[in-house]
Amino acid sequence: MSIADNLKHYKSEVETDGVKLIAVSKTQTNDAILEAYHAGQRIFGENQVQEMVDKQLQLPKDIEWHMIGHLQSNKVKYIAPFVTLIHGVDSLKLLQEINKQALKNKRTIDCLLQVYIADEDTKFGLGHDELIELLRSEEFSGLKNIRIVGLMAIATNTKNEKQIAIEFHELKVFFDGIKVSFFRKDDYFKEISTGMSADYKIAIEEGSTMVRIGSGIFGKRIIKHFKADISAN
Ligand SMILES: *Cc1c(COP(=O)(O)O)cnc(C)c1O
């Protein structure tokens, strides 16, 4: 199946549920991205700042770029002029820097707070208490150029679908509580970014509003160092 075929398959499957499809194009070539673009995709997710900046310069201007990787504060300035949504925000310090750079660019930047849900040590994210503390803080209430539009999470990398479903379900319960406590009147707080190629169906069943699909659309990722030598797929 071609990239365009894969894309159409995911689009029809996901978007009938009203869920947004983020095509995760990290390590993929511009040609591969353009194939998805010409098949109708406009939202692309990247996890490296430099790569996203380069692609944004080279590719059509109506693409919405989502930063899905862990973002370092000192690199926010490079993506602040154009990024549509930052998925993985997991500290007040990072949020303050995004706010500062958004202000410099005279815009408001939408963010998702990343919640730690996996049964692993390696994943980034805020614990429930930490997230609540952040939202309650005086520093947070002073940030006028960012908008928290929802939560993002990555489930445990396991074949145990029941465990994945429980993790996504608990996130949805937590999301509903946060909505009532902090964003009751804010219609924009509505996004749950969960689900990747391996677990997006479970994620959608458990309330996801945005799935991040990479390998399912583009095929296996090329290893970074060989990027220049091997074309995608
Ligand atoms: C790479 C990546 C994805 C996409 O993963 P696939 O398994 O290729 O679909 C989704 N979310 C994040 C945060 C990623 O880094």
Question: What can you tell me about this protein's structure?
Answer:
The chain contains ten helices and eight strands. By secondary structure, the chain is of the alpha/beta class. The chain has one domain: Alanine racemase (TIM Barrel, Alpha-Beta Barrel), CATH 3.20.20. The protein has an eight-stranded parallel beta sheet. The model is unreliable at 225-233 (pLDDT under 50). Bound molecules: pyridoxal-5'-phosphate (PLP). Pyridoxal-5'-phosphate (PLP) is lined by residues 24, 26, 47, 68-69, 154, 196-198, 212-216.
Give keywords.
233 residues, alpha/beta, TIM Barrel, 8-stranded parallel sheet, 10 helices, globular, binds pyridoxal-5'-phosphate
CATH class: Alpha Beta
Question: Can you list the strand order of the major beta sheet?
Answer: 7-6-5-4-3-2-1-8
Q: How many helical stretches? A: 10
Ranges with pLDDT <50 over ≥5 residues? 225-233
Q: Strand-residue fraction? A: 15-25%
Q: Could you name the CATH homologous superfamily?
A: Alanine racemase
Distance between the termini: 11 Å
* Count of distinct structural domains: 1
Task: State the shape.
Answer: globular
Using DSSP, what is the number of strands?
8
SSE sequence, one letter per element: HEHEHEHEHEHHEHEHEH
CATH architectural name: Alpha-Beta Barrel
Q: How helical, in percent, are the residues?
A: 40-55%
Bound molecules: pyridoxal-5'-phosphate
Mean pLDDT over the full residue set = 94
CATH topology: TIM Barrel
Instruction: Describe the main β-sheet briefly.
Output: 8 strands, parallel
Radius of gyration: 17 Å
